[in-house]
Specification:
Layout lengths: L5 H44 L1 E3 L9 E2 L10 H34 L5 H7 L2 H4 L2 H14 L6 H26 L2 H9 L4 H12 L1 H17 L2 H7 L6 H10 L3 H25 L2 H6 L4
Antiparallel strand pairs: 1-2
Helix pairs in contact: 1-12, 2-6, 2-9, 5-10, 6-9, 6-10, 7-8, 9-12, 11-12
Length: 284
């Protein structure tokens, strides 16, 4: 029987070290690529937002300051911000008003055409939004809704109801049905069961749905531009008009401001969007 040399004993350890080093290198490379993809555009926005004078061939702004950030306190910027937040709040309330009872009915009731109703709410997202909104613009002008806040709210609801209805359907499907059956066996009506059992258990899902809809409406651009412009201006439209006018500093400041509520709302969404909801999301 041949003896095992020290080199043979050390070989598994060396292979393990090489595997660990390769894994660490791959993770470091992936992190570097991620930082470049995310940090590159973000750093460009930050630099442009403080550039008061930047001309070729300088690689950095010749004059830097907060002059363009000071415009955040002016009516020119605050009016689109307040209007966008107000529209997003209205869209959120209306979407939940429709989506909560409809989501409960789609989750609990079995009726002919239920699958067709669910799929119908996906149609606005099944095609590119620009031609969908462009085709709807003619009808909005016909009924005098173009250039009005009700018109912008309605066009936002086209996409917002997709998120709200599908989310609320998944939320109510995740609630155990035996709890409702027990309440009904004790004499509770369907309405009382919904209000007393299902609705309180669905509160985290309702909050998650509200955050999704609010964020969608706050960042919605195509519909607002086609239906609301030039009378209704929100921050995305304000950023667009600044960028096509080569006011890159204003556009960069607006983009950074729009990122703040998005990041905050996504962190809150992670807290309220439970794994149970995701398990039923997308099921017919």
């Amino acid at each position: 029987m041949s003896a095992i040399s020290p080199d043979d004993r050390a070989a598994p350890g060396r292979r393990s070290n090489r595997g660990g080093l390769a894994e660490l290198t791959a993770k470091t490379a992936a992190l570097a690529v991620g930082l470049f993809v995310i940090g590159g555009p973000l750093s460009s926005l930050v630099i442009w937002s403080v550039a008061e004078r930047w001309s070729w061939p300088s690689s950095l702004p010749q004059v830097m300051g907060l002059r363009y950030w000071s415009r955040l306190l002016t009516g020119d910027f605050l009016a689109p911000l307040q209007r966008g937040v107000g529209i997003a709040a209205i869209v959120t309330m209306l979407a939940l008003l429709f989506a909560v009872p409809l989501g409960y009915a789609l989750a609990r009731l079995r009726f002919p055409g239920r699958t067709i109703v669910l799929l119908a709410f996906l149609l606005p997202q099944a095609f590119p939004q620009l031609p969908v909104f462009a085709s709807a613009t003619r009808e909005f002008y016909r009924f005098g809704l173009a250039g009005t806040i009700p018109g912008v709210v309605m066009i936002h609801l086209v996409g917002a109801l997709v998120f709200a209805v599908w989310t609320m359907t998944a939320v109510f499907r995740s609630i155990p049905s035996h709890l409702e059956e027990a309440a009904m066996n004790l004499g509770a009506s369907l309405t009382r069961t919904f209000v007393g059992i299902s609705l309180p258990l669905a509160v985290p899902g309702i909050v998650a749905s509200a955050l999704l809809v609010f964020l969608y409406s706050l960042d919605e651009f195509n519909g607002t531009l086609l239906i609301g412009a030039p009378f209704i201006t929100t921050l995305p439209v304000y950023m667009y008009t600044a960028s096509i006018g080569y006011e890159l500093q204003i556009a960069s400041v607006t983009a950074l401001v729009l990122m703040v509520p998005g990041a905050v709302l996504l962190l809150l969404l992670e807290r309220f969007l439970k794994a149970d909801y995701l398990a039923f999301f997308g099921q017919l």
